[in-house]
């Protein structure tokens, strides 16, 4: 099962995914792992990426913001494609995706690339079984003291708060548009981490119960009880 945790930068996606992996194993009894762009720097798992010649941090924070338009978008799409083609989800496991292609579609559309072109290029990606949008206003992210990076600040190497907010407003708009068009559930991320986590877990559990293979793996005592019909 593929589950995408989607949201703008600073929404807490990575933190929630780390907790979800442990929760899926311990609470649901289902093996779980994550896939994120930095993983392809592990050349034992992704031998075709041995040519990079730099660290993930150098690529993401110094080189990527210097790439231009379609070149940058195609590079990001390539990174996501390597992940899901080299290590696809196996039967009987959950793979959590950190934004997946949807996040970079939204970011590159925010930079002004044609949305229709981006969607066409990304059409080959397998659709997740569940996509959850963790939504937050970038102003709230700034108030939390988020450390901005150039790419998420509209390629502003000064990483000014105003640049971050301006760019992330656009990214958020494209993400919410995807959510409306595809029926993705949206979760308010401007709340305590535990409340967000509980909401995500509830939806992940429901998704696994609907899946014939994973549902059979759930301990009976941990399954969500059916709602009683009113007399």
Structure description:
The chain is built from nine helices and five strands. It has 231 residues and is α/β, with parallel strands linked by helices. The protein has a single domain (2-220), classed as P-loop containing nucleotide triphosphate hydrolases (Rossmann fold, 3-Layer(aba) Sandwich). Strands 2-3-1-4-5 form a five-stranded parallel β-sheet, sandwiched between helices. Helix 1 (13-28) packs across helix 8. The chain is globular and about 50 Å long. The termini are far apart. The model is unreliable at 225-231 (pLDDT under 50). One of its GO terms (molecular function) is dTMP kinase activity. One of its GO terms (cellular component) is cytoplasm. Residues 212-231 are annotated as: Disordered. InterPro entries: P-loop_NTPase. This is Thymidylate kinase.
Radius of gyration: 18 Å
Low-confidence stretches: 225-231
Please, how many helices? 9
- The computed structural class is alpha/beta
**CATH fold annotation:** Rossmann fold
User: In the CATH hierarchy, what is the superfamily?
Assistant: P-loop containing nucleotide triphosphate hydrolases
Instruction: Give the class-level CATH name.
Output: Alpha Beta
Number of strands: 5
Gross CATH architecture: 3-Layer(aba) Sandwich
- What's the domain count? 1
Order of helices and strands: EHEHHEHHEHHEHH
């Amino acid at each position: 099962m593929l589950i995408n945790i989607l949201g703008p930068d600073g929404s807490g996606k990575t933190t929630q995914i780390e907790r979800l992996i442990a929760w899926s194993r311990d609470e649901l009894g289902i093996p779980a792992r994550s896939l994120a762009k930095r993983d392809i720097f592990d050349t034992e798992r992704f031998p075709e990426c041995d040519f990079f010649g730099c660290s993930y941090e150098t690529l993401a924070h110094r080189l990527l913001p210097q790439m231009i338009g379609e070149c940058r978008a195609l590079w990001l799409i390539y990174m996501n494609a390597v992940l899901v083609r080299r290590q696809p989800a196996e039967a009987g496991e959950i793979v959590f995706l950190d934004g997946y292609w949807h996040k970079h579609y939204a970011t590159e559309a925010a930079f002004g690339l044609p949305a229709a072109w981006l969607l066409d290029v990304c059409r080959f990606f397998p659709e997740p079984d569940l996509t959850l949008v963790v939504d937050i206003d970038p102003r709230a992210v700034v108030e939390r003291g988020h450390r901005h990076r150039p790419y998420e600040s509209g390629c502003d190497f000064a990483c000014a708060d105003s640049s971050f907010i301006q760019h992330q407003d656009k990214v958020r708009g494209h993400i919410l548009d995807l959510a409306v068009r595809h029926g993705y559930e949206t979760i308010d991320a401007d709340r305590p981490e535990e409340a967000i986590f509980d909401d995500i877990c509830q939806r992940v559990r429901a998704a696994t119960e609907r899946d014939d293979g994973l549902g059979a793996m759930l301990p009976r005592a941990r399954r969500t009880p059916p709602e009683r019909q009113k007399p």
